[in-house]
């Protein structure tokens, strides 16, 4: 039995993008139950994961010190899989190494200087890799556009859809009473999410409220709150904070549409989550979002608030006039993304490399 080490400590925050990726990929591995592989999960959440998976996985306790050379993991495994490109945790000894790349947002958000320590860290991981996986064609294209990628096997493996079943949301109570039809958006509060543009759009959509879910303790959240005051839409905009799966499904089931004007997305899970419920999705026409949204999503071509509001109203009219067709096609698009399929594709990569 081959031992596969999963550097997955980002599962510590299971409701962030990386956390969701790690958690649902583990669920996919559990479903596949390959008898030839044994997975060792690097995590600070052993108890949390054992409640879900029992003893299916073995666990290596995560320590922050492991990012330093003196404390690196010395055990030799048959294969090491770094589940995201940002981790500083590396093996002490050489072994087959797979790197999964979600995005290279750090080039724009930190520095585009190839000599910057952040970029050098990424280059070291690239050069260490014996195989590279990307979560979208866009992630692959942008990586090749900025970095010299080594000539190793490369694969695009799409993320799955986190919505595996429809949950009972009847007991969920929003933190603030919803008095109108509402739009929904969710994500970590970072500038690239463009939540402030949604706020600027709301004075032109008086018949709607806007629910923003996610970690709203970051500095950017104050920028968004200031926008609600500036545009006098405090009563229209609701900050829901972090929500669990029940809360997220409540908002997805009951919203009029998902609005997601993010500028930089390696994949973008919320659109496919919304499409599961046949909800119209309004997306930025950038990065991976057209790749994920497909032809029945609506796209903003620019971010002028007046244009965004007009495009939204026009899109909603189109959706309502063809609602049965759109709901069918949106659900069909969402069904293309499956964590069990993704997990099997990763397993196939492992076995190809181990041969």
Could you describe the 3D structure shown?
There is one protein chain. The chain has 355 residues and is an alpha/beta fold. Strand 11, helix 9 and strand 12 form a beta-alpha-beta unit. The longest helix has 17 residues. The mean pLDDT is 93.
Please state the CA-atom Rg, rounded to the nearest Å.
Answer: 21 Å
Amino- and carboxy-terminal Cα gap: 13 Å
Q: Give, in spatial order, the strands making up the sheet with the most strands.
A: 3-2-1-4-5-6-7
Structural class: alpha/beta
Q: Can you write the helix and strand succession as a string?
A: EHEHEEEHHEHEEHEHEHEHEHEHHH
Tally of individual helices: 13
Number of strands: 13
Sheet bearing the most strands, described? 7 strands, parallel
Q: What are the low-pLDDT stretches, counting only 5+ consecutive residues below 50?
A: none
What is the typical, i.e. mean, pLDDT? Answer: 93
Shape: globular
Q: Per DSSP, what share of the residues sits in E-state strands of 2 or more residues?
A: 15-25%
Fraction of helical residues: 25-40%
Task: Summarize the topology.
Blueprint: E1 2-7, H1 17-32, E2 37-43, H2 46-53, E3 58-61, E4 79-82, E5 97-101, H3 106-109, H4 117-128, E6 131-134, H5 137-146, E7 154-156, E8 181-186, H6 195-201, E9 208-213, H7 219-230, E10 237-241, H8 245-254, E11 257-260, H9 269-276, E12 281-284, H10 289-293, E13 298-300, H11 305-321, H12 323-334, H13 339-354
Parallel strand pairs: 1-2, 1-4, 2-3, 4-5, 5-6, 6-7, 8-9, 8-11, 9-10, 11-12, 12-13
């Amino acid at each position: 039995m081959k031992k596969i080490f999963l550097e997955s400590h980002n599962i510590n925050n299971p409701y962030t993008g990386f956390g969701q990726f790690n958690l649902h990929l583990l669920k996919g591995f559990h479903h596949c139950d390959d008898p030839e592989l044994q997975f060792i999960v690097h995590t600070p959440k052993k108890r949390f994961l054992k409640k879900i998976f029992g003893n299916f996985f073995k666990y290596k306790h995560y320590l922050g010190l492991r990012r330093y050379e003196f404390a690196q993991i010395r055990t030799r495994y048959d294969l090491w899989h770094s589940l995201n490109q940002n981790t500083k945790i590396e093996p002490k000894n050489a072994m087959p190494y797979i790197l999964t790349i979600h995005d290279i947002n750090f080039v724009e958000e930190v520095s585009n200087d190839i000599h910057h320590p952040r970029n050098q860290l990424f280059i070291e991981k690239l050069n260490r890799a014996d195989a590279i996986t990307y979560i979208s064609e866009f992630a692959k294209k942008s990586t090749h556009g900025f970095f010299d990628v080594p000539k190793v096997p490369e694969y695009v493996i799409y993320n799955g859809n986190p919505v595996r079943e429809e949950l009972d949301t009847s007991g969920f109570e929003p933190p603030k009473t919803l008095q109108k039809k509402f739009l929904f958006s969710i994500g970590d509060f970072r500038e690239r999410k463009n939540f402030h543009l949604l706020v600027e759009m709301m004075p032109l959509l008086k018949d709607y409220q806007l629910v923003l879910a996610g970690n709203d303790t970051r500095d950017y959240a104050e920028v968004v709150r200031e926008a609600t005051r500036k545009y006098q839409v405090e009563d229209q905009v609701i900050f829901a904070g972090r929500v669990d799966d029940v809360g997220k499904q409540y908002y997805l089931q009951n919203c009029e549409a998902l609005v997601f004007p993010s500028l930089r997305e390696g994949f973008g899970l919320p659109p496919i989550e919304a499409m599961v419920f046949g909800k119209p999705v309004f997306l930025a026409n950038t990065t991976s979002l057209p790749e994920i949204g497909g032809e029945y999503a609506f796209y903003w071509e620019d971010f002028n608030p007046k244009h965004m509001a007009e495009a939204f109203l026009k899109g909603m009219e189109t959706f309502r006039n063809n609602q049965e067709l759109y709901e069918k096609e949106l659900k069909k698009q969402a069904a293309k993304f499956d964590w069990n399929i993704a997990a099997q594709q990763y397993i196939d990569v492992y076995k190809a490399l181990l041969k």
